[in-house]
Each structure stands twice: as structure tokens, then as C-alpha cells.
Predict the structure.
Amino acid sequence: MILKGKFKKLSERSLAWSFAGSVDKPSRIEMLQTLSTVEPNSMKLLPTWKHPLPEEADEYMKILEDTRFIPCPRGQNYETYRLYEALEAGCIPICIGEPTNEHDCYNKLIGDNAILISKDWLSVKSMIQQINSNTEALNQIQENLTKYWTTHKVNITAHILAALERISKPEEIGRA
């Protein structure tokens, strides 16, 4: 998926939040129970994690394109593809901060305060309800996230290209 910058404004999307994934972890069940009263929403629940079929991936992308907030619970580790999918679709990803500070991995990978991190799912519910009713705030958050994410990807690409350039010219490595 490539961020095209041509997606619906959050204020024009019909789903307050969506989640597609497995419910084989107690924390996810808690998340879904807490957020289920925030409507409209979309939940595609699987008993265990599996790779989607191509038609399921297309369906998932359509749901993302019509969603404002994406809760990003931890998977096998704290980092999850869901966060990047949300950013690519112009959604607002929300994560739960962990007492072990595992969520700091996002500050290292993406940058400080680039995503919303809350203390628990009840706080996330409150945050969604509060921001969801303010179309101006929704669109401003989306604009800020989109600009940040696009710039971040350009910077990462530049660093990779520079590293590849140095590798292709080994005689310059010793001089750097």
C-alpha cells in the first residue's frame, strides 16, 4: 500500500473506529468490549491470526478508507502492522502505553508523539468520543499525521539511499 494523499477526510468517513484481527488475547477482548458501544464501528474478528486472502485484503482496505480511528493492540510483540496500515490509510492509530514502556519503540521507529498513546482502552473510548464530534480537530489531526508520516518516509528513504551509496563506494567508507 502506498500513501497517495488522496483519501477521504476523517470528517467524511462513516466509521468511528474499526478492528480486524484475532481475539485470541484477553487484552483484545477487553478492548473490543470497551469500544463496542462507540458507533458506528466495524469489527472483523478471527479466532486466531492468519494471512488474509487477496479479496479479504481489498475488503480490509475499503474499511480502513472509511474509518477514523484504528485501535492498535499489541500482537506477539508491541509493534504491529496495524499501526502502519492506519497511517497509510490516513486514519488515526491509537495504542495503549505499557508499564514496561514497550510503546517507546514507536518513538524510536516513527518519532516522538507521532501517534496517540493512551493509558487504557476506557481512556481511548473517551478520546474517540471527544475528538469524533469535532470535525475540525479530526481533519487537523489527520493533516498533521499525514504530513509527518509522508516526511518520515521520505527521510527514511534518503537514509537508505545514502547508505546504499556508501556501500557501493567502499573506498569512501574509510574516509567518512
